[in-house]
Amino acid sequence: MLNPKSRQLTPHFLWGASTSAYQVEGAWDKDGKGPSVIDLANHTEGVTDFKVCSDHYHRYKEDIKLFAELGLKTYRFSISWTRIYPTGRGDINKAGIAFYDSLINELLNYGIEPFVTLYHFDLPQALAEQGGWGNRETIDAFIEYARTVFNHFGDRVKFWLTINEQNMMILHGNALGTQDTSLADPMKALYQENHHMLLAQAQVVKLCRQVLPTAKIGPAPNIVSIYPASSHPEDILAANTYSAIRNWLYLDMAVFGRYNTIAWNFLECRGWTPTIEKGDMEILANAAPDFIAFNYYTSQTVARSSGEEVEKGHTGDQHLTVGESGFYTASRNTHLKVNEFGWEVDPVGFRTTLREIYDRYQLPLIVTENGLGAFDELVKDEQGNLTVEDNYRIDFLRQHIEQMRLATEEGVEVFGFCPWSAIDLVSTHQGCSKRYGFIYVNRDEFDLKDLARYRKKSFYWYQQVISTEAKEL
Ligand code: BG6
Q: Strands (DSSP E) along 82-157, which ranges?
C-alpha cells in the first residue's frame, strides 16, 4: 500500500554510475604505481588479469565525455592507494596525485560530482607483506593515506566512501583475492583484520570531519535482505543470525560504535572474537557516518543447519551464500529467477533492503552498486552503428529503480543511485567477458583489440531515465 502523500525522489538526486580503480584503470605499474594485493592475486584460469582493464588511466577524458553525454550527475570511482603511496606509506607518488587531480577536474568541468571510494579491495602489497590488516600499523597507514587525499582533493570532492564491501572481504576474501590463505587460523585472523578495518574506518570518518567539515562520508558495505527458507521458527532464527553476521555487524559498528550482539555471540561460539585493545571502543564510538552507501545485487535465503553439513568453505563467489554449519545453511529461493551466474534477481528484495537499512539507522542512503553482469554481444543497429542490445540489463535496472522509487514513496531517504558499472571493466574473478557497463569496451579476455568505446542500448535508456528524473523508465 502506498502512502497517498507520495514522497518523490529529491530534485538533486545523484543519478550516477560506479567503477573501481583496479577494475577499470589498467596501467597497473605505470608512473610509479606500486602493486596491490589484487594486482598480484592468482587469477582464475581462462580470464584476464587487471593489468590493462579498460585502460581508463589513459582514456579517462574520452570516458568522462561519454559520462557527461549519459547525463551522470555523479561518478563513483575509487582512488588506488598504491598510485598515491606505492608501498602503502612513506613518499607520495606525485604522478598519482596528478592523475586524480586531472580526473577530478575533468569531471567538474562537465558538472559531474566526484564520489570517491578510498579503498576498494586493493591493499598495498608492501603492507600485506608486513601483515596487512592483521598488523595495527596498517590502520595508521590508511589514516595517513586518507589525510593525504583529503588534503589534496578535499577542495573539490564533497562525498567520500571509506571501505568498499568490507563484509565481502571478510566473508569471501578468497573469491575476491583479498585473503591471505597462508594463515594458520584464517577465520580468527580475518575477524582481527575486520576489527582493525573498523578502527581505521572510524578514525578516517573523524579525520574527515576535522579536515573537511563540509564534506560527507560514509561506509559502503554490501547489504541485502536475508530470507528464511520457510516459516519454520528455526529457519527464521537462521536468517536472523546470518543477517547479523553478514549485514549488521558492519553497520551497527559504523553507526552505533558497538559490536552486534548476535554476530558477537557467533564469533564467541567459533572462537573467532578479535582482541580488543584498551581504547579501541572509544575510537569506535562517536564516528557515525553522514550517510550509508550500500551495494545490492541479489537477496539471499538461508535455512536452519543440522550442524552436519559440509560447507564448501569460504571460496567461490562473493554474492553466493556459504553456510556456517550449526548456524545456517544456504538455500535456493524458488520464487526468484537466477542470472547467468546463479545470482537470484530480486528487485522487491532491494526495496525491502532499503527499508530495513533506513528503519534501523535513519541515515540518508545512496546505492553505490546495482546491476547485471552478462556476456554482451557487439552487433550493428539499424543505422549500422555498433552497439549492444542489452534489453536484459535495462529490464533489471528498470525493476530496481521502480522499487527504489516505491521505497522513497514509503519514506526511505535515498539521495543517489549508482549502477555498476559506468563502463565495462574486469569482474572481480570472472574476467572482462562478464560485462556490466553502459559503455562497451572492445576487448576480449586476452585480445586487447582496439579498446574502442561503444554506447549500448542501456546507455540511451539510462540517459532518458536521468533526464526525466526516472519519470520515464
Ligand atoms: C561487488 C564489488 O562485490 O560486486 C565489485 O564491489 C564487483 O568490485 C561487483 O565487480 C560485481 O561482482 P563481479 O564478481 O561480477 O565482478
A: 113-119
pLDDT tens digits, 379-396:
999 999 999 999 999 999
Q: Report the nearest atom of ligand 1 relative to the CA of 175.
A: 14
Q: Residue 441 gets which letter from DSSP?
A: E
Annotation says 268 is catalytic: no
Contact 316, 172 (CB under 8 A): yes
What is the C-alpha to C-alpha distance for residues 437 and 53, in angstroms, rounded to an integer? 13
Q: What pLDDT score does 380 carry?
A: 95
Tens digits of residue pLDDT in 214-247: 999 999 999 999 999 999 999 999 999 999 999 9
Q: In this predicted structure, what is the pLDDT of residue 321?
A: 85
Q: Which of 202, 190, 196, 220 is nearest to 257 (CA)?
A: 202
Strand partners, 217: 160
At residue 314 the predicted structure's pLDDT band, cuts being 50, 70 and 90, is: low
Ligand 1 within 6 A of 428 CB? yes
Residue 15 confidence (pLDDT) above 70: yes
- pLDDT at position 3: 58
Judge contact between 73 and 15, C-beta under 8 A.
yes
165 is an active site residue: yes
Are 428 and 318 in contact, with CB atoms under 8 Å apart?
yes
Q: Which atom of ligand 1 is nearest to the CA of 426?
A: 16
Atom of ligand 1 nearest to the CA of 318: 3
Q: How confident is the model at residue 10 (pLDDT cuts 50, 70, 90)?
A: confident
Give kind and range of the element (H or E) at residue 74.
strand 74-78
Which residue in the block uniquely carries the three cell numbers 582481527? Answer: 192
| DSSP-based three-state secondary structure for 306 | coil
In the set 165, 193, 324, 344, the catalytic residue is: 165
Condensed to tens digits (0 to 9), the pLDDT of residues 396-419 reads 999 999 999 999 999 999 999 999
Q: Is 420 in the pocket of ligand 1 (CB under 6 A)?
A: yes
Cell numbers representing residue 34 in the block: 606500486
- Where is mean pLDDT largest: 130-144, 179-193, 308-322? 130-144
Whether 172 lines ligand 1, by a CB cut-off of 6 Å, is no
Nearest CA to ligand 1 atom 16: 427
Task: State the distance from the centre of ligand 1 to the C-alpha of 428, rounded, in angstroms.
Answer: 5
Between CA 83 and CA 21 the distance in angstroms is: 10
Distance between CA 20 and CA 426 in Å, rounded? 10
What is residue 300's DSSP assignment? E
Rounded Cα distance, 323 and 302, in Å: 8
- Cβ 427 under 6 angstroms from ligand 1: yes
Q: Chain centroid to CA 115: how far? A: 13
Which among 354, 348, 394, 350 has a CA at the least distance from the CA of 372? 394
The span from the CA of 73 to the CA of 13, in Å, is: 8
- What is the rounded distance in angstroms from the CA atom of residue 377 to the CA atom of residue 126? 39
